[in-house]
Task: structure prediction
Amino acid sequence: MADITRRAHDAPSGVTEKIMYEAFRIFKQEGCHSVSMGIAPLANLTPTAAGPRGNSVERLLNLVYEHLNGCYGFKDLYRAKENYNPTEWQPGFYAWLPRVPQPAMFYAVIRIQNPRGLWDFARGLWRSIRRSRRQTAADPAHKAA
Result:
């Protein structure tokens, strides 16, 4: 399972794809019938029996996916995995929250994604919000509404 793919900023373009291609080729030679590239968090959220808009948790997670991509790269990760033309997407959900999430939990998540600290997180969040607003304002469908 390929769960984490990162590359240095100065690595040649396509190096990650080349590594993945070679790994898949070797796996096939060794007789593997399938591989997993891990999950793409929050991608393809669909409403459930809770109604056409989904329940409040689904709406919140979809909002995070659509508007906080700059903080984690949800859409980028999904597109990167989609480029390999998977034969199957399996839904997967991994979550655990106590009844009342503690601030330390949110801080830990922020630190994991932003090792440079809270200011790095805040800058990324601000950029993401500004980028989302610019895209919405530039969308002809939004202007017509």
